[in-house]
Amino acid sequence: MKLSTRGDYATRVLLELSLGEGPTALSVHDLAARTGISAKYLEQIMMPLRAAQLVRSHRGVNGGYELARHPDDVTVGEVIRVMDGPLAPSPCASRTAHVPCPAYRCPTETGCVLRGLWLDVRDAISDVLDRTTFADLAERQRTAKRPEVYAI
Amino acid sequence: MKLSTRGDYATRVLLELSLGEGPTALSVHDLAARTGISAKYLEQIMMPLRAAQLVRSHRGVNGGYELARHPDDVTVGEVIRVMDGPLAPSPCASRTAHVPCPAYRCPTETGCVLRGLWLDVRDAISDVLDRTTFADLAERQRTAKRPEVYAI
DNA sequence: CATAATTCCTACTTAATTGATAGGTGTTTA
DNA sequence: TAAACACCTATCAATTAAGTAGGAATTATG
Questions:
Q1: A46: left (phi > 0), else alpha (psi -120 to 50), else beta?
Q2: Strand C: positions under 7 A of a protein C-beta atom
Q3: H helices of chain B, where?
Q4: I want to staple B7 with a disulfide (CB 3.0 to 4.6 A). Which of A28, A45, B1, B83 is the partner?
Q5: Nearest residue of B to residue A9 by CA position?
Q6: Beta-carbon count within 10 A of B103 CB
Q7: pLDDT tens, position by position, for chain B (152 residues)?
Q8: Which single residue has its CA nearest the C1' atom of nucleotide C21?
Q9: Which chain A residue lies closest to B13 (C-alpha atoms)?
Q10: What is the radius of gyration, based on Cα positions, of chain B?
Q11: From B15, B35, B117, residue closest to A132, measured CB to CB
């Protein structure tokens, strides 16, 4: 049930883009520096995010990437799906990209007990990831930093 | 967040072993026929299950595998962990096999917002898989078959 | 005792995926 | 016009996934 680095990194980058007030474009170079991800690898991660219209890009000097929508309108679930595919542990248990059980892997088909279980798992994951927006994460990041401020 | 065929197959086999009344040993050959899994591949899947003492084996004629414990004492979560490792999407969010974030992947370390999110995901998955026993699944399988009986 | 059925063990293979790196082209602003 | 950028495609090494193959050890049974 592992997350790939692509999904992980994409989440970090979008969180980084959600931290500023209003949409400010950040270059791959800057994003790489802030997140510790290789710039060349990050370049590739940004492409599907742009294709999915989660971010907008501007070329040339002072170009970069910015969120295409407000952080409270982008969920982690969306990002993970773009980078890693459906949340469901099995294709037969995906709601956004359902694939019927081929007979050789799911002989009982109708009433497959395991499909029901994997659906429960999918829904449990979705309950967390589709309800968590980048505005939520940004807010948590800010409050998590409070102690340092108080420590003055 | 995909399940491997190993985890999937192991779950099917243990469900099959949970369906009979009392512990009856089934050979790999039989299990393969009932589940549609290659016998040679299934052989390899049984080994870690035995090492984890989830099943017991008997060699020779009339040998085979049986559950080592009562079906209501074996959870799907246990099986998936044996076959696929921790349930958590990130090693830093595992409760059973925690690995601290290395600095290069998690620069903020303390107060890493994403770790909190992955922990929520892990707990959501665990809520389903660690609460579902093979007795539950066997019961569901039996009741799922009822309609056919009623249809006489 | 012989034999067939079985687990057990190790090695191998093939294909896909992961996690990058490399090198260049097109675009924009100062 | 030059630097800073996004954009694009290819390549690569390592790992994992998914399975195959072949045989050794064990055991019940005729």
A1: alpha
A2: 4-11, 18-23, 26-30
A3: 5-19, 28-35, 39-51, 76-84, 113-129, 134-150
A4: B83
A5: B105
A6: 10
A7: 899 999 999 999 999 999 988 778 999 999 999 999 999 999 999 999 999 999 999 999 999 999 999 999 999 999 999 999 999 999 999 999 888 876 555 655 456 899 999 999 999 999 999 999 999 999 999 988 655 444 43
A8: A40
A9: A114
A10: 18
A11: B117
Residue B69, both tokens: 């414990």
B27 touches strand C (CB under 7 A): yes
Pairing of strands B64-67, B55-58: antiparallel
Give every CB contact of residue A10 below 8 A, 6+ residues apart in sequence.
A45, A49, A79, A80, A82, A83
Q: How many Å apart are CA A111 and CA A36, to the nearest integer? A: 47
Nearest C-alpha in A relative to B141 = A113
- Distance from B25 to chain A by nearest Cα, in Å? 22
Identify all chain B residues contacting A117, using CB atoms and an 8 Å cutoff. Answer: 76, 128-129, 132, 137
Residues of B in contact with A80 (CB under 8 A): 1
